[in-house]
Amino acid sequence: EAGVAQSPRYKIIEKRQSVAFWCNPISGHATLYWYQQILGQGPKLLIQFQNNGVVDDSQLPKDRFSAERLKGVDSTLKIQPAKLEDSAVYLCASSRTEEGYTFGSGTRLTVV
Amino acid sequence: RKEVEQDPGPFNVPEGATVAFNCTYSNSASQSFFWYRQDCRKEPKLLMSVYSSGNEDGRFTAQLNRASQYISLLIRDSKLSDSATYLCVVKQGAQKLVFGQGTRLTINP
């Protein structure tokens, strides 16, 4: 089966600019996750969707981060305005079962 | 206190050696446990699940001690290709995975 697709692979922006990331989960996977992984740390959950509803966004910095999953398939994550500390890899993952968690290749964001 | 704690390493061991990683978790209600492997500049991938009875997959053995809230991973006869970061992962609630910081392992020839 095709994996989780993410784009772009890399993005460099200046602080205070806006950026958006896109994720296409594995077909049939109802649950979609966005994780942030700062260099040297483990991934941290930002937001979890079940179909197009939000299950958990407790760690999403809502003053600057937003995410949506229209039609319960693709998802976008936006940062506006970006800060230097947002430099990280943004990983999208999807799952259908309790254990089947598949990550995309991630988007590496550098804020300068 | 972090929800999942690991020694970040790095661990540098010679090829063929046995190496063990440990991890502790703080939430006693955690339901499932995993080890993920992450290669440099790649996404995390599931290495193995961890069961209370202990489980083995080839050279890899994982164990869980619920009373002590402690998880371990043992790699026997290590290979150069085992060099990676090993992430301890705990599932909480509705399919939410909480990751540790990861332990970096380098196998030297």
List keywords for this structure.
heterodimer; A: 112 residues; mainly beta; 50% strand; globular; B: 109 residues; 6-stranded mixed β-sheet; 5-stranded antiparallel β-sheet; 0% helix
Describe it.
The complex is a heterodimer of chains A (112) and B (109). With 112 residues, chain A is mainly beta. In chain A, strands 2, 4, 5, 6, 9, 10 and 11 form a 7-stranded mixed beta sheet that branches. A 4-stranded antiparallel beta sheet of chain A has the order 1-3-8-7, with no helix packed on it. The radius of gyration of chain A is 13 Å and the shape is globular. With 109 residues, chain B is an all-beta fold. Chain B is 0% helix and 56% strand. In chain B, the strands form 2 sheets. In chain B, strands 2, 4, 5, 9, 10 and 11 form a 6-stranded mixed beta sheet that branches. Chain B has a 5-stranded antiparallel beta sheet with strand order 1-3-8-7-6, with no helix packed on it. In chain B, strand 6 and strand 7 form a beta hairpin. Chain B is globular, with a radius of gyration of 13 Å. The termini of chain B are far apart. Classes of the chains: A mainly beta (112), B mainly beta (109). At the A-B interface, strand 4 and strand 5 of A face strand 5 and strand 10 of B.
In what range is the share of β-strand residues of chain B? Answer: over 45%
- Given the structure, what is the number of helices of chain B? 0
* Helix proportion range of chain A: under 10%
Assembly status: heterodimer
Q: Could you list the spans of chain B in which at least 5 consecutive residues all have pLDDT below 50? A: none
Kindly, what is the distance between the CA atoms of the first and last residues of chain B, rounded to a whole number of angstroms?
37 Å
- Succession of helices and strands of chain A: EEEEEEEEEEE
Largest interface: A-B, 22 and 22 residues
> What's the helix count of chain A?
0
Q: Which structural category do the helix and sheet elements of chain B fall into?
A: mainly beta
Overall pLDDT level of chain A: 93
User: What would the principal axes of the Cα set say about the shape of chain B?
Assistant: globular
Rg of chain A, nearest Å: 13 Å
- Structural class based on helices, strands and sheet pairing of chain A: mainly beta
Which residue ranges of chain A are poorly predicted, with pLDDT under 50 across at least 5 consecutive positions? none
Helix content of chain B: under 10%
The CA-CA distance between the termini of chain A, in Å, is 37 Å
Coarse morphology of chain A: globular
Biggest sheet overview of chain A: 7 strands, mixed
Indicate the radius of gyration of chain B in whole angstroms: 13 Å
